[in-house]
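Minutes, methods subgroup
Present: GH (chair), OT, SY

1. OT presented the first of two proteins processed in the latest run. Sequence and structure tokens recorded below as shown on screen.
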Amino acid sequence: GSDLFVDNGDGTFTHTTVNGDVITFDANTTTLLDNGNGTYTLTNANGDTITVDVVGDVVTNIQNQGDIYNEIINLITNTTGSDLFVDNGDGTFTHTTVNGDVITFDANTTTLVDNGNGTYTLTNANGDSITIDVVGDVVTNIQNQGDIYNEIINLIDLNETATNLVDNGDGTITYTNEDNVSVIIDLATGPQGPAGEDGKSAYQEWLEAGNSGTEQDFLDSLIGATGPQGPAGEDGKSAYQEWLEAGNSGAEQDFLDSLIGATGPQGPAGQDGVVDPKDLTAGDASIIVNNGLGSTLLDTNIQVATGGITTDKLADGAVTNLKVGADAITSDKIENGSILPEDLAAAGPDQVLTTDNNGNPIWVNQTEVGEIVEAKNGLNKNGVDIKLGGALIEPTTITADATNTLAVAGLQTGTIQNKLVVAEADGTLRQIKAAMPKFFYMPAIIFDTSVQQSGVTRNLHAEYVAQFTGAGNPTLVSSAGASNAIPTLPASELEYHITYYDTAVFANLSIDPNGILTYDVIGNATEASYMTIVFVVKD
């Protein structure tokens, strides 16, 4: 009526449960896990597992013994020597333990926690709690009933097949079966588990923490703020201080004197001096020799070699006009920028320096220079003067901006017969009549009001242009010799206004800056229905 373990003699064991389940396991590669609830799980090298329910087996044996089981039930239901629960009839209960502890709790505000070890904790609304040991109470009552307790012990002794597991503390356990045969199980030599997942880099952890950026950004984030400046270091010691600390004494001059070593030994005797001196003389008048008599071993004559005198050997002002040849100075010998206006020969009044047909520089009158300048494309020349005015001979653009503007001052007041100057989109100037109105009515258009609807749109500017230019207006009739189009203005040059509309027909009217009218039709028009639309020309 209990689990059966059989030692197969080859390091394996066969376990047969009370339900007849059979499993064979190798003790050397078996793990035993205490589940903490009275059961144990054995796993062999193949991964096969079986759970041994020690407490369950004892309970089953008790239940199979009818008299003993009934006696235990009587003990549990007997309030004497056990916990007592009383329903007070008002939603509260009073619990009295076998030790006499009493606590009253409200069932509607009570929590019951299963502690997973045969005990339960009750907590009321005030936070008072008590632990009920169900298993402990049953065991205590059984033990207090000597005959029943002894009978249970006899049943266990008769039916239990005792085995023993001992943890040796070195990674092995000793298993002893019912026949007192022991075997040592080495838990450390089980099969190698699967490889773990690769760890994440610090950069990945940084990104997953909600940061963003490159690896360099991550590295930069690790650099803390600059710390405070450390204390100033000690002042260094002078050589004189070091000399004193070495055990010497005296003033700074004594220290300096100590640096002078002793006089060295006398050196060897030098060669004998000149016995028969000779004179040093000049070869020509370009060199003057002072104190040359008896100054050399041999008679010596010196003179300046060709090219031997350089500019750094010449004193300022030493070279005169007489010393310079007529063609001695060329342009490659003159430093750029070294000739100033005052260095040039004086010219006549109002003359300018230019070149003749052969490229030679000459001074000429300014009026003669004007004759070689040509004025064209809106300019003209009057003598030496260049004036604004003249025919344009090519497309011409004058560029202005917000800072460098173009203005014409002193213009006379015009009349209605005068023309206006206007600019096209590309800046080209045109002239139009000055009588352009400041506002005008939009040409008539027809609205369909037969069906009620919302969000209807009409492009007022487009229909105005179509009617005035004849595009989409086959009924346009013009006078003989007239142009095919009436002048129109772009949408951005107009403002759009509705001065009247039939409120029984239209509602929710609006116009955008480009002349798009949006409206709802709420009723059918009558003969008296109309809408007045006015276009205003922007300044």
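2. SY then presented the second protein from the same run.
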Amino acid sequence: MLPRTILRSELVRHIEGLGLLVEELREWARRQEQELAQRAMALARSEGILAERQRELEAALREMQEQRLELAGLAQQLQAERAALEARREILRQQEEALAARAALLAEREELLRERESRAGSAGGRRPADGGAPRMRVVDTPVPPPRGAESSPGDGTAGPQPDTRAQAGGEDAVPAGPTPEAVLARVIGPLGDIQVVEAKVRWGEGAAETS
């Protein structure tokens, strides 16, 4: 009988130990389940954060693409403006060359006028009554050139013009006063253009009178 009692007591002890072990396993399982739930919640939060970050990155990518298109359009506009500026620069350069050529031509005409004036003075031209210097040989006038005067292609001068007052009425009239003298007249047009023609000047007591 004694061995049965001992076996029974051992079985009861083992059963109680197994019950404690089962309770510990159940507690461990509950703790694991709670940890897994917490990890799942953390993963869900991380997934939401990652999804939001992905949306932000996609929006940033679209914005960068739009900015790239805007920059490409701006680059094309700048290239067009640069081409326009280059064309304008070329036009200004051509205008500058034309002005320089015109200035050189005017300087050449001035030199020609001075040479002709010098030759006319050395040839004993008409001189004023109050001194030894020759009278004016170049007349500046703001009126248009005499009708029918055309510039020759050589030196910019025109041929002699007849005395229009001497032809009034279709008859040869005798001009009053001093005899007209042929001089070079520098005609200044309304736009500032200069034309050199030959005209006749009557030297009187006052200002010279051209015809």
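Chair's summary of item 2: The CA atoms of residues 18 and 24 lie 10 Å apart.
Next meeting: continue with the remaining queue.
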